[in-house]
Amino acid sequence: MEKVVNQYSGNYILATKKVVKRRAGLSESTMGYVFILPWIIGFICFTLGPMLFSLVLSFCRWDLFKDLKFIGFENYINIFTDDQYALSGLRKTLTFVVFEVPFQLVISMLVALLLNQKLKFVKTVRSLVYLPVVLSGAVAGQMWKFMYNQDLGIFNYFLSIFNVQVPWITDQKLALFSVGFTGLWAVGTSMILFIAALKLIPESYYEAAEIDGAGSVRKFFNITLPMLTPTILYNLITIMIAQFQCLAPFLVITGGGPAKSTYVYSLYEFQTAFKYQRMGYASALSWVMFIIVLVITLVVMKSSKSWVFYESERK
Q: GO terms for CC (predicted)?
């Protein structure tokens, strides 16, 4: 009797284990979806949903307090044929991007090369360089606006020693580039990525180059720079997209002035939506910018095949 009970108990335990394993197998196959479900819900509700709604609005006339009316491609036609602010804002934005992207790339790479050295307190300095990134654009904009002040700003304070006063944000020719220099505030993220990429370059490459008699300049252009090209590509695209979307510095520092010299596309789009309440037209403006950024990004990605070096592709 005892043997029968033990045999029955053993079979029951074995069967139970199989059921548990089967259930565990089912849960494992779906667990990943369960974990990402909150992100999927958030993406649909706060990203994909608003994007699709904005796309629909771009074909409508909706001034928020009036009934929504479908007008087809009229908004898009007006942008390119009858809207001087949109076209001039787009030109200013392109000028800003052409200046700002190389500026941030070069500065962040130089800072990364410097802070990749074995220096005292280098980790502390890295943290200090990255720290401004955590500040909001509005706060950083207010600080730069004060530093650019013609009478009380720190820049003109030091220049006054040489009897020089520069109208940083009140001169039409300087204002756009003055806002561009505030990009120094945001090099921390790109710098960290460059430092991480530098750490991945094998020391044996440099040792072999030294044996061949290569100097610092040759090692940089023949080893460091090619090995950094994947990171350069990533930083190039992310910085470019960020600058096309750049709003806070223009809104806080210049407000689009002087004389509309810094009235960039993103600022015009923002004011069209939230100042003039033209939601349909603002949606069309945003989709035009989306398409422009998408096309430029695809061109950059396509061109990367000729200048980005991946170590895994070496023959």
A: plasma membrane
How many independent structural domains does the chain possess?
A: 2
Helix, strand, coil distribution of the chain in percent, nearest 5: 75, 0, 25
**Contact indicator for 233, 304 with CB cutoff of 8 Å:** yes
pTM: 0.86
Say which amino acid occupies 86.
A
CATH number of 113's domain: 1.10.3720.10
148 neighbors 178 (Cβ within 8 angstroms): yes
Q: Write out the residue range of the structural domain in which residue 293 sits.
A: 76-313
Q: What is the pLDDT of residues 173-209, one digit of tens each?
A: 999 999 999 988 889 999 999 999 999 999 999 999 9
Residue type, 78: N
Angle at 97 between CA 95 and CA 103, to 5 degrees: 110
SS3 (DSSP) at 60: strand
Nearest to 104 by CA among 224, 211, 189: 189
pLDDT by residue (tens digit) across 53-76? 999 999 999 987 888 999 999 999
CA proximity to 296, closest of 226, 241, 234 = 241
Tens digit of pLDDT for each residue in 4-60? 444 444 454 444 444 444 444 556 768 888 889 999 999 999 999 999 999 999 999
- Cα 168 off chain centre by: 26
